[in-house]
Amino acid sequence: MTAKALTIAGSDSGGGAGIQADLKTFSALGVYGASVITALTAQNTRGVTAILDVPPEFVTAQIDAVFSDIAFDAVKIGMLSQPGVIRAVRDGLDRWRATSVVLDPVMVATSGDLLLAPEAIDALRRLLLPRATLITPNLAEAAKLTDQPMADTPEAMIEQGRILLGMGAQAVLVKGGHGEGRVAEDVLVKPNGIEWFSAARHPTRNTHGTGCTLSSGIAAGLALGLDLTQSIRAAKAYLTAAIRTADRLAIGGGRGPVDHFHAWWPDRA
Prior knowledge:
Elements: E1 4-12, H1 18-28, E2 32-44, E3 47-53, H2 56-67, E4 74-77, H3 83-95, E5 101-103, H4 120-128, E6 134-135, H5 139-146, H6 154-166, E7 172-174, E8 183-190, E9 193-200, H7 210-223, H8 228-244
Parallel strand pairs: 1-2, 1-4, 4-5, 5-6
Antiparallel strand pairs: 2-3, 7-8, 8-9
Helix pairs in contact: 1-7, 2-3, 3-4, 5-6, 7-8
């Protein structure tokens, strides 16, 4: 059987994040990828210059088109900038009884540009958190979703994860990649306990699309039949390698993308 995953997210015209990063990740990990585009961004490695939201009714049309023909093993959700689109996605997941849903609550691009309208945050909390198998907020996103200061201790990361569980998520991976220190620590918070995942930091400015890549990597693992812990470990190993070799890429003049095809293009200078 062919493992199949769907990404529901925004398009990055620069190719480093969003739909493009998700499809690259699916492909690199041996999963067939399909897509539902929720927004178009005029974007490169230096920043976002414009955003065009896809109308909710056309998001619905895309969801119905792909689900009516393809049986997906997992779904990754990324950039959803408007309440109407969030509602359309939630309704589509319910209508097609989607399972193994990984929600990356994208709010700000690596460049610092805002990707989520403020009025959409409450809709994300109410409509999609309870629909997610796993949500993958970074430190800033977890703070925004919980109305807390940004976590600066392991205890605070766990506490914010538990608050998000209380909002309905089945599991929460609070990512520590934006923190300090030589090791990046993520914590998986579930109703029955916690689990830590560690990875060494690698100095590079090419970090565009790291969050998209990790969440789509987890969705790929679930599509392949791995359990949640195995999917997170495999995705983190893939992303760590993609960051470690990212400087082999010479893309743009800003924060370049991670090296999605590091295992396939090993001989680049």
